[in-house]
Amino acid sequence: MLYILLHEFIEDIRKQKLRTFLMSIAFSWGTFTIIILLSFGRGLIDKSLEGVYGSGDQIISVYGGQTSIPYAGLGTGRYIRLREDDMFVLQNAIPEIRYISPRYGRWGQVVTERTTRTVYFEGVDPKYEFLRSMYPVAGGRFININDIRERRRVVFLGNKIAEELFGNTNPVGKTINLEGTPFIVVGVMQDKIQTISEGGLDENRAVIPYTTFQTIFGHRFLSSILIRPEGVEFQSTVIEEARRVLGAKYKFDANDTQALRVTDYIEFARLAGLVGLGLQIFLFLLGFFTLSIAGVGLANIMYAVVKERTREIGIRKAVGARKRHITSQFVFESILISCIGGSIGILLAISVVFGIRQVDIDSTVWVFLGSPVLSYSTMIIAISVLSFVGFIAGVFPALRAATVDPVESLRYE
What we know:
single chain; alpha+beta; six-stranded mixed barrel; 14 helices; 9 strands; elongated
């Protein structure tokens, strides 16, 4: 049966060389388009999420604010300012917290033998490394617990400010002056993508132990407290409990969102994922409609083939051929044409994606666009759409062929 179908397919190709060639090209282009669009869409989504996680890896940033709801006889407009001990209060009261870090912050002068810069520097806990994805380049380290306990004068630099201060020289072990106080550089941050910033990008910051910061500068109030829950499913619980616990301490309504402000990076990541899903659906529809146009052309060719072979179909039915034999032939030919063209498109798309990923393009736009990602799901979607369009393009002409009347077909010229 398969041999007969292939033989008839080859005969049809000989008769319809140009149209078959054009349809193969159309299916190649349609398949290529859908794979390239989905691959670039996946790359863009991955870069977007990388930028969110580079800003804060599944964290909640808590700030003091100003009351907007009266509470226990106290009026509105009171300022709520967070202190260092609030970190320990929250950590002890909320078991769903995995990591927590205070954050002091201020602008100041950084001086080296080479240059002077104005930098935003922060006093934080060692867990800040994981909360903000501030991982050190090999050969250096982030601040550690001993730095906190001993109030050491050590500093961790963002990669860009390190380059501005030291050029191509390795800064680890070198001394810099922060507002006139000497600090030893213990590490430099790895380059990362960051799409959300609070007062600037991490690549331009200097980070010191929070105990050292408080000792030198005497700040009473924190800029914020950073929290990572045990899992994203505890996001709402941690926020509600933080408002309840601190509300009881500072005498404000737990429902007063202005008294305790929250920046929710978990929500940012969720929204970025939803936007990415919408983008993928949009790009899929573009590719699908492109491939559907090729399907319409193939259906027209198959209708022409049915018309040209009307007498042959009538003879076959007259000698006992059943409808399924007739329909299977035309559906088989349609799917085979689409698969041949689609295979060329798949190979071409794989080559293009692989080639682009090998090119090192130093461009800010390209960094945020991301390289195309050719995933298994993309290939499965492309092959599924290709098979579906090929089947639909063949099934309607096949059904028409199956309804040919043997007697009338013999009169057909």
